[in-house]
Every structure is written in C-alpha cells, then in structure tokens.
Amino acid sequence: MKSINGCKTLFTVLLLLTSCGAWAQHTVNNETNNNTSGCSSPTATYVGATSCQANFPGARDDSSAGNDQNNAPFSPVAGQVVDTVTFAAVPKNVADFTDDGVDIHNLVYPGYAGPIFANIELWHDGPGNNGNGFTFTPKQPSPPGINQFNNHYETGYINNDTNQVQAQLNYMQRLKIDGIVANPPGPLPQAMTAQSTKNRNVNAAVEKWKSQADATAGFLYSVMTDQVMWEQNNSTVCGNKGLSVTPNCVERVMICSLDYMNTPTANTFVCAADGITYNGGGYFADSHYWKVNGRPVMSYFLVAASYFGSSVCSASAPCALYNDNQPGLTCTSSTDCWTKIWGSSTGGIQHHISNATNFPVKPYIIHRNTSGPAAPAPNDGTFRWYNISTDQTYQNLGPDPHTPSVDTLGYDGWLTSAFNTPPAVFLGIGYGKVDHAQSPFEIGDHKIVDARCGQTFLDTMNRPAVKGFGTSHPFQALEIATWDDYDEGSEMETGIDICVNTFSASLNGSALNWSINFNNAQYGSEAKIDHYAIYYTTDGSTNTTIDHPLTLLANVAVNNTGSYTDPLPNTLPNPTILYVKAVAKPMLQNRLTAGVLCSGCAGGTVTTVRPTVATPDGVAYTNPTNAEDGNLGTFSAGVSSPNQQLSGEIWSGFSSVTGTPTQINLKISSAANCANANDGLELNYSVDGGSTWNLVYIMGLFGGSCINRPQQTDVISLPLTQDLTKVQVLALFSSTGASSHQVFDSWIEVTH
C-alpha cells in the first residue's frame, strides 16, 4: 500500500485547505477493474467522474461482422482469419506509469525524450442505445443504426463534456502521455452560427481540452484539422457539399480557422469565410500549444484529390480563388487549385501567414505522409498516418505489395527520409490495430491491421529505433493513432488484450509459484509483459472475495519461461493473501492472479495497540469507541447536519511497546461515500501528537475526487523509532445528508 507522507492539512471548524490531491490506491479492485476513461463498470476508484451514460461492452472484430466479415484472402491459411483481439475491447486494467511504473517513452527507445501525443477524435455523443445499454448488431449489409449516433460508433460517453475531458486527461497523465493532437473541424469560433451543431460540439470539445491543458502543468496540445471544416457545415459556409465545393470558399474557411487560432482571446478578427467579427481563440500563443523552434505546429489531414476535379474546375471553366483577398486568380484542376490555395509569397495561405503584422510567429504547416519536394507548400514538415489494405497480415511498414500505389514508401520509407533529410517538423506514429468492421462509411472493404496480442503496437512504437533513431540521433515526436476512433477500430483508449489463457499462483512451503500461458501460439508471449509485481494483504482478513488493500512486496523480472518461483520473507502479516500481477507493457492490459491464502507466512511476534481516547473536533462522531474496539464490523460515523457543520473526531492514547521492533504499521479501516461534490470527507494521521497531519484521503468540498470508497484498510508504515503515544488519527466530515463517513477501527501493529 502506498503511504502518503508530508501532506499538511490546516483546518478550522468550517474551513480546510490541503496541499495534497487524490492518489491511486492498491486494492484488489483497483488492480483488476477498468482504470481507463472508457465506459465500463465497475471502475477503479481513482478514475473519477466521466460522462459515461452506458457501459461500453466492446465490439466484435471483422471476422464476425456479418456480411462485412474479413474473408482473409491473403491469410497464411486460405479463408482463415488471424485476428487476435476484439477491435474495440471492453475497458480493462491498462498498464500505466503512475500505478505500474512503465514508461511509454521507452517503447520508442530507452532515453527517448520527445513528446508522445494521443491523437484524439472528439465527435462521440449520445447514450448507448438511447440510454439502455448496448446491443451489438453487425452491419448486414448496412449500418443498422443501433451501434451509431450521428453516424459514428457509440462509446457510451460524450466528448463535449468537462468531466470526460478531465478523466481522459488524467488517464493520459497516468500513462505519461505528454499531450493530444486534436481533430476538430477547424477549429472555428463557437459564435459562428453557420457551423452544424455536431461540428460546433466538436469544436467546443477542443476548447474544453485547451482549458484543461492550460490548467495542467506540462500537458501539451496541437491541432490536426481536415475537410470537415467546410464539407459538413451548412450552405452559409461553403455552398453545396462534396465535389462541388469551391476553392474560393475552402481557402476562406481555412484562413478563418488559422486567424481564429492565431488571434488572442481578448482581440478580434474578421473571419474570411463570412465577414463577421469574432474574438480569437488564442491557440498559437498559448504556452501549452505544441511548438517546435518556438513555432506552433498545425497538421492538415486532407484528401486533396477529392476536390476541384475536372467537373468543377477546368481550362474551359476555371474556378475563382480567394488568393488571400486578392481577386482575379483562377485555377483549372485539382492540383492547380490546391497549389494556389496553399499559395506563395504573392497569394494564398502561405502569403496570409507570412504577414508579420497578423502572424508575428508563423505556424509550421505539416502534411500527412509527405516529405521532401513532393509535399504541398507550405512545406514545413510531415506527420505519418497509416495506410491499410485487405491483407490483415500487412502492417504498413513497407509498401503494400498488393496495391503499391496506395503508399509507395510505407512507414519505413517515411522514417528513412526523416532520418536522412529531416524537415523542420516530423511527427511519427504508433498504432495498435485497425478494423473497419463497424466503420459506418466503409462498408464491405474488409480493411484490417491485426493487433497481434499487442505486438503491432510495440512494433510501430519501436520502429524509429529500428530505422536508426536513438539518443545520438533523436526522434522528434510521435503520436498514437488513435486514442478513440472506434469507427475504424484504431482506438487505444481501452488498451489491447495480451491474449492470456491462464495465469495462476500457488504456495510451495515458503515459496510463491506462478505460471502463465497464452491462447495465441503465434503472438501470445511474455514479450508483452514488462514485469511481475507481488502484492500481499495487510487487513488481517482471510476473505478472498472482499476488496483488500494491497502492499507491493516485490517486482520480478520476466524470464520468458512462463514459470516462476519466488521465496517469501518471514515478516509478512499472519495471515495474508498473496497476488501476482502481470504488469503489461504500456497501453496493454494487465492481469492479476486469484488470491493465495498463506496462514503461516509471518515470522516474529505481532503486538496490537489500540487508541483509548476519542476527542471531538467540531461535532463529535457517533459511537467513537467503536473505532477502538477491534471489531471491523462496528463503526463510528460522521454526523450530517442541515447546516453542514464540520463533524470531526481524533483518536489517540496509543500505549508504548517495549523491545526492539522490526516493523510498525498504523492501520485504519474506514469507508467514505461522497455522494455530493459539495460535501467533504477526509482521513488523516499524526505522528507528533497532532502538531502536523498527514493525509490518507480527501474528497469533495475539501479537495480531491468525489467517489464511493467501500470499506478498506489503509496501512501506513511508521519509523521503527516512532513514539506510539504521539500517534493520532483524525476523521473529518461535512454533509447535509447525501454522503457518509465511517471509521471501523484504527490500530498499530508492532512486529518484533
């Protein structure tokens, strides 16, 4: 169990100020339940509030998606699929840095110091199946609608929600992800009424991420935009949709978006798209916006060839261009129009952002999968994206042998180009899976990149090192594609299953044994595991069904045999329950064995010391002696009040123990249900007679997430020289009735 030290709490009867926030706690549930920000119940207690309205159950992969199933024409065995994981898995316990100590940066190469971004889509909306949960229905042969909302696959949560944004950001931080690359339709001003409601909601979600990033030390964000900014808004933005959209309007919308991002929030600009004056968005000058060489990076994900074809712009019917508000220029083909939209020193977007008056710091413009002179101007750099085919064994590392014209370089060629001739900005990619089984806009294409039990993700994250990058030739930046594109099955939010078949532990005398095996002979292996962690319980209970608090005993390296023996120390509590956790590589899903009861593990003698004095601190807790009697079934409770007065109780009067101890643990069994964020709950302890207090947990009004914390025992290791008579326990509670707080018992165990 992690102990919290050095957290000082200053309090009066009605006011509490704390310097400590919420923290992740080792319990059986927290080590097994969903610790992601995806929608699945139950969740780890420290996930916090989300916008979840339905439990995401996962979605079947292409091999079982009705008429859209993958017939695997290029499979090693004709007609046999090799899929290893559901493309959108039920959220599980994913290996992270905060709880598991695994650093996602090391997947690129040891010592990689560049940022890792999560590419995030922000269009998810609506409850699952109208709020009644999910009913998975494969598309046969068209989307039935029950899996989609606004033509996107349902996830059970809403992107444009402050709780969801905060939960996702917190989750990314636990994974040690450095920031996001967001994909909005622009962004464009919220006050721009010509936007569709869906696009306005997506842009509003970006604004929420910007606000949360600005409030989070070290967290970055950047924007990758696409043609949705002009294609899916109503006629007052760009006329008709699709191929008939005009290059004049496309450039005006793109310039409006750039001006919005560039203009400070306190200043105004005139939108080139509609001539209306708006306040700026303040993106580019924001200290949390990702910059290279002091310049903000803007990514464009555009299918340029789909616009301004011969039926729209031709030599006989040229199209007028905006040309950065310099009339008279026309274009006669898709290539000609885009060349002039991007512009030069005399017109177009390049001319617009070169204006030092408007853009004192010129943004870097980077394009998808391009590098060198072939890239469209402004040619400041490139970001890598995946291209996939119907061959599910193809990983897009090289050109697709079946359709080489789709991607003549592959990721390896892109990396080689960036290694030999690096542009100003190069943003690489890591992806774990792709599956169009439920993509509502690509029915029947059977495109898939198999997860291979997590190997695909590990391979793509490590690919820069394979192609020569390292600490002596650093890689610039990398984005995970994607965080939450459930439509194309590339989401990483729920993690990737590592294909464990059985994982069990047993005792052999004073040794703990465990073994693991996998259900996929080709890709299931210990290569997906970072290390094993051994935990033990400290609450004295032998009930294997309750949510025990856990203490980390040891980390054990992977030996790649699948079989382990680890000797146990003779200082464990008696009795104790032992668990082994297979800590996966970052973003892959962890596993925990069932508990193994050991009734003869401890050595030495344990003396239990209980408090004898209960002193009110504000309104007294009810039945304070119930927290002194050694009975974990009775409790002292905080008192609710219509006036929300502070209810507090201090337990002290622990007696001293003679002899030389080998271990001293303070244990406090409590439960806290914070049902209203305006209520406050807190538990503290002191080792100096109440002069200073150390925080065990805090909730709601007092600080920290407002959650339901079932009964559990917190264990705090005390110094062997501790004067037990100076130990005190403080419980605090403030509520008008919605919340509750119980202290079941507090005691000190001294081992000799």
Describe, in plain words, how this protein is organized in 3D.
The protein is an alpha+beta fold. Helix content is 14%, strand content 26%. β6, α4 (197-214) and β7 (220-226) form a beta-alpha-beta unit. It has four domains: 9-26 and 606-751, Jelly Rolls, CATH 2.60.120; 33-115 and 130-176 and 434-497, no CATH class; 178-383, no CATH class; 500-598, Distorted Sandwich (Coagulation Factor XIII, Chain A, domain 1), CATH 2.70.50.50. The radius of gyration is 29 Å and the shape is globular.
Shape: globular
Distance between the termini: 21 Å
Query: How helical, in percent, are the residues?
Result: 10-25%
Residue runs with pLDDT of under 50 for 5 or more positions: 1-23, 75-80
What structural class do the secondary elements suggest? alpha+beta
| Biggest sheet record | 8 strands, parallel, barrel
Describe the structure in brief.
The protein has about 750 residues and is an alpha+beta fold.
Write the layout of secondary structure elements.
Layout: E1 9-11, E2 16-18, H1 28-32, H2 97-100, E3 116-121, E4 148-149, E5 152-153, H3 162-174, E6 179-183, H4 197-214, E7 220-226, H5 228-231, H6 235-238, H7 247-262, E8 268-270, E9 277-279, E10 291-292, E11 295-301, E12 319-320, E13 330-331, H8 334-342, H9 348-353, E14 364-368, E15 381-383, H10 410-420, E16 425-430, E17 434-435, E18 448-449, H11 455-466, E19 477-480, E20 500-508, E21 511-518, E22 529-537, E23 550-556, E24 563-567, E25 576-584, E26 591-592, E27 596-598, E28 606-609, E29 613-616, E30 636-637, E31 647-652, E32 663-673, E33 680-686, E34 694-700, E35 708-718, E36 728-734, E37 740-751
Parallel strand pairs: 3-6, 3-19, 6-7, 7-11, 11-14, 14-15, 15-16, 16-19
Antiparallel strand pairs: 1-2, 4-5, 8-9, 10-11, 12-13, 17-18, 20-21, 21-24, 22-23, 22-25, 25-26, 25-27, 28-37, 29-31, 30-37, 31-36, 32-35, 32-37, 33-34, 33-36
